[in-house]
Amino acid sequence: MGQDGIDEKRHNIWPFLAFIHTISYLQKALYLLEIILVSDANLVSSKHIRRWRFRQTPSALAVQGLSIFRCFVMALCTLVSLELPAVEVKGLYQVEALVQEAGLSARGKLMRLGMEEVLVRVSGTPQVLRHETIKAALKKSDKYLQQFSYQTRDIKKVNGDNVEQLALQMYFDPTLINDLLRQARLPIWGHNRPNLLLWITIDDGQGRHIISATEESLLRQSIIDQAKLRGLPVLFPLMDLDDEAALPIVEAWAMFKEPLQNASKRYQPEAILAGRLYQDENAQWTGRWQFIFNGQAQSFNTNAPDLTTYAESAIDYAADQLGSYYAVNTDTDDAGRVMFQVEGIHSLEAYAEVTTYLELLTPVSSVQTVAVEQDRLTLTLMVEGEVEKLVEAIALDHRLIPRQKTDQTAAASKLYYRWYQR
């Protein structure tokens, strides 16, 4: 099963990371070139480079120019290492499946499997498939389809050849799926989802290395595929000079909590998954994982005969943990009323943006305007489940900034924010 993909709310994150990666290598190249020119200008002492004794030779002038430019590059690296925006996952209700055989019964089977994938992705847990209400609905999965179509895909075989394969595109109705989960009193996990940063160290028998954002490997692709299936945004470190200095390979293998958190600061993820992987004497992949979230670390072990299964189990663990935290509990009869006050509303455009934003949050069932005074907007929200889930959903996106440093959920009836208009 596949998924359309994970996109950022405002822009794609991968060109951004590639830009940082390019700058890092430029910084390294400039540093090496500077050393060469310094040596040529007779500016190297027996212990270290003495930059304050430049002679006005062409090489010395070049060194001065390179030093200034390298400082500019370093400053640029600092500027682009800002907090990444929250991720809006698209395609939660969309599934693509390769067609292996023709016929209505085969299509019905694919639709059932597709609906299972959507239900797990939207609820945040595979446990939903055990519910009797869900089992009954899966028998008529076509009733929950919004539309479907057939597409031709180029599939690469093991030998490297490309073959055309028919694929079934299925778009399930978000309203019907969500209503089904509510009917079964099962959780619903919205589109805004936390970033998961992965520090995975592999020992292949010849050495150890950390999987980077630019590496092409079976394990990295398996992780990406499983994360898409679960609707979980994942990031890999750039493994540039900054990452290598922040997390040496020895500390990455040890997976201590504090070094991992310090090395992850530049990426600002909501959660961290660290792993170490090697093959035992029976050629079975084994290792240990550490999941860090909300300042707490949880360790777990996995064993698998192949890399794909190994990766899937670790991503499933992280997705289950994050889903249980962020998904809205619908196992309640009453929606809570919350007074929601927002400052920074200076135009009709901002008013429309903030009300639309709140209406799209999974915990919010309705938004009603109470008062408008200068730049302050007072709303009444009907919130499904715990108010804490609403606060957590808002915190992911950084569009609304808490006006008070106190616990926003303490009163559970009044929330105060400032709108950040991009």
DSSP helix fraction: 25-40%
- State the end-to-end CA separation: 36 Å
Estimate what percentage of residues fall within beta strands: 25-35%
Largest sheet: 6 strands, mixed
Question: What does this protein look like?
Answer:
This protein is 39% helix and 25% strand. With 422 residues, the chain is of the alpha+beta class. The chain has four domains: 13-80; 93-183; 194-326, 2-Layer Sandwich (Double Stranded RNA Binding Domain), CATH 3.30.160; 336-419, Ribosomal protein S6/Translation elongation factor EF1B (Alpha-Beta Plaits), CATH 3.30.70.60. A hairpin with a 5-residue loop joins strand 9 and strand 10.
Write a brief caption for the model:
It is built from 12 helices and 16 strands.
Question: How do the strands and helices of this protein lay out in sequence?
Answer:
Elements: H1 13-40, H2 58-80, E1 87-88, E2 94-98, H3 104-123, H4 132-138, E3 145-156, E4 162-172, H5 174-183, E5 192-193, E6 196-203, E7 208-210, H6 218-230, E8 234-235, H7 241-246, H8 249-254, H9 257-264, E9 271-279, E10 285-293, E11 296-304, H10 307-326, E12 336-343, H11 348-360, E13 364-373, E14 376-383, H12 387-397, E15 400-402, E16 414-419
Parallel strand pairs: 6-8, 6-9, 12-16
Antiparallel strand pairs: 1-5, 2-4, 3-4, 6-7, 9-10, 10-11, 12-14, 13-14, 15-16
Helix pairs in contact: 1-2, 6-10
Throw out a few tags for this protein.
5-stranded mixed beta sheet, disordered N terminus, 422 residues, Double Stranded RNA Binding Domain, alpha+beta, 4 domains
